[in-house]
Structure formats: structure tokens, C-alpha cells
Amino acid sequence: YQGVVRAVCGASVGKLCEVCFLLNLFMISVALLRVVGDQLEKLCDSLYPNGTLSGAPPQLPWYADQRFTLPALCGLVIFPLSVPREIGFQKYSSILGTLAACYLTLVVILKYHLEAESLGSSEPPQPSRASSWASIFSVIPTICFGFQCHEACVAIYSSMRNQSFSHWVAVSVLSMLICLLIYSLTGLYGYLTFGETVASDVLMSYPGNDPVVIVARLLFGVSIVTIYPIVVLLG
């Protein structure tokens, strides 16, 4: 990606793009690790009832502490997946991540139709006006982050067997539509279930001891882990 910008816009703009590119990928890496860490913490809480779920002070063993689980995950899973220098290899892990994201969406939808009354308010959430235009624009960066994939587009295109323009457009549009469908359904049904009390991470709004939610949380972590090697490869 940086090479394309350098060739089209010149060396100075190319250098600036490289700096912004690395800074952007660094911030993405930190955000992804934060999300994975939250899911690991909730998974450990669900496995050990004496933890935060029961309201008592957490008494987790050392191997369930986030200070151990997160570095172990990075060293044993993320690093081996990041070793191959060909982005085409990541398609196998990306398929698993996509299926995991679809499972999460399915869980949120089914929970709304089957357990909405026990999880949230029995009344459907009433639409409320935004307090200001600033509150509307404040969510735009989050939405853009969810659809941010232009850093990988050049590397993905170069790994495709059929590099015709029409095929690339079809792949790009279909991929974005799948993302839009997954994001929209998850956000919509999460809000319909919990209303304005929904957590920023919708899984945090569900009981931590629900087996279906535990599996969803585990698979959500898998989907994040499969993204991380692509970020490392691009950086």
C-alpha cells in the first residue's frame, strides 16, 4: 500500500504515508489486544465462579490471570500465525474468523427472540433524539474502524489468481456487504435486547455463565486473533 502511494504521489507523500500507516496499525494492534484481553478475562471469570461473577474478590490461579493468558496467547497463537510472509496463507484463518463472527451474530439474534424479556426490558426501546450533532459524529470513527481494510487491499489483490478489475470489484463489494450485514444485525439486535443499557461490547451485557455466550465469546476472540496476523504482516 505504501509503495503504491509513493509511486503515485511521490517520495515525500510516500514517507508521510508510511509513518501514518505504522501509527495506524500500532493503534489497531493495541485496540485488538484490549478486546481480546477483555474476552479472556470474562472467560476466566466464567470458568472460576469465585471470581468477579459472584461478587467476591477474584481469586484466580496464576494461569487464569490476564497478565499470563494474554502474553501466552500472543506467543503461542498470534506469533505462529504471523510468521508466514504471504497474505494468501491467512485466508484459512480468516475463514474461521468469519464463521466465528457469523456465530456471534446468530447468538445475538436468537437471544433477542428467545430470551429478550429475561435479559432486558420487556418494552421495546423507544427511539431517542441525539443530544447533539457532536454525539452523532462521535460514533463515525468507530464505524469507520469497523470497515477499515484499505491497508490490506493491495496485498490481497496481489495474492489473487484472477486479478481482473471486475473480479476485484465483485470480491470487494461482496466482502463489504457481508461486513455490513454482520455489523448491522449484531448492533440492531443487541440494542433491541438491552436498549440504551447495552454495553459497548455487546457480549458484556449477557450473563457470563451462559454456555452459548461463553462459546460466542471464545469464537469472538478467535475472530480477533485471526485479524491480528494480517495487521502484523502489513506492518
UniProtKB/TrEMBL annotation:
The keyword Ribosomal protein does not apply. The lineage of its organism: Eukaryota, Metazoa, Chordata, Craniata, Vertebrata. GO terms for molecular function: L-amino acid transmembrane transporter activity. GO terms for cellular component: membrane. The chain crosses the membrane at residues 16-37, 68-83, 95-114, 134-157, 169-192, 212-234. InterPro entries: AA_transpt_TM (IPR013057). It comes from the Eukaryota. The keyword Metal-binding does not apply. It is found in: Membrane. This is Putative sodium-coupled neutral amino acid transporter 8. Keywords: Membrane, Transmembrane, Transmembrane helix. Residues 1-232 form the Amino acid transporter transmembrane domain. It is a multi-pass membrane protein.
